What does this fold into?
Amino acid sequence: MNAASALLTDVTPLRKSPQFRRLFTGSLLSTAGGALTAFAIPLQVYDITRSPFAVGAIGLAELIPTLSIGLLGGSVIDALERRRLVLVTSSLLAVVSGALAAQAFAGLRAVWLLYLLVVLQAGLFAVNTPARRTFIPSLLGPDLVPAGLALNRIGFQVSIILGPALAGLITAAAGGHLSACYLIDAVSFGGALYGVARLPVMPPRAGVARPGLAAVAEGLRFIRRSQLLTGAFLADLNATVLALPVALFPAINAERFGGNPVTLGLFTTAIGIGGLVSSALTGPLRRVARPGLAMLVTAAIWGGAFAVFGVADSLWLTLLMLAIAGAADTFTVVLRGLIVQLATTDELRGRLTSAEYVIGVGGGSLGSLESGAVGSLASPVIGVVSGGIATVALSVVLAVTLPKFATYRLKEASTEPPQTAPVPS
It folds into this structure.
């Protein structure tokens, strides 16, 4: 292996597996469309209310169904035919995006309706996304699963880059109207359906527990017994809850750059570019001996970058800090995926994948609510800077209070049986 191949992501799964290639392509199109809606909803709420707290409350609207449906959905994923489940939920998600387009075309200014549609969307994603992530280990052999996970992350980063930038241009060209963003998202679900429809049937494993609270409790007990999973999830929550100020982006953009929608689109695009570059260069992570400690370091870098973003007075420094945050996020997610791979059993794949999804989305939703609240009570700048500094400080606290997580070495897993991991979000 030469130096270049040691750095770059392996694309063998795309060459060898037509099924994975279709799934990857369809997911890429759908996720890019979803990025348009993720751009449009906060901007529409802010345009109606001019309130950072109202934008942050979108996180609460996402959090409630994510928590109430997400974990229970994991037991459903383990017990049902996964391909059909994803087809049904993807179709319903397209309907929700169509409803968002309809209300925008009609010129409605009903924030309650936007929140309601966000709740429906989040509930469907709480089942759809974890179920979709279980496909990669089923389609690829054990040797190709790590490469499949890395490609999945690259696809996600590409969508983050293209989606917001395109959304900003579309919104500016349409004179500030957001209906086109929602409509394109609804159409993009055709890609998701294309990628899944021709996959093989994926029936549940024999002997899997019936869906319900008992099955959910089994998964939660597994997490509680594992210090690796506990540490990884807490480190992730530290970054997303305290230092994810997306809800403050419209206010920061309005305060510094006149509310230009193109500039607002560049905010998220910069995060995506940083994440894309780092996701294509994750080879050195194979040599990380202490993934827990490395995860705490990258979470601290994420928080520090956002703290500087909060006080940056130029566009180039603003975008640079967001790119650094995006790069740190990718390494954090890859390290989390590695830790989950070492600690997860295949029989609990659906439930553990759902738990990881709940942690990722739930933390982000709480982060939007937290940053929106602080931004409204104090100022958007204070909301961003305080959250970033708090993440750096809590990373140090976690390193001290969870020494087994911080000092865990990969060679300690060499005697454990091989296990398959869910796809990191």
Observations:
- The chain has a mean pLDDT of 83.
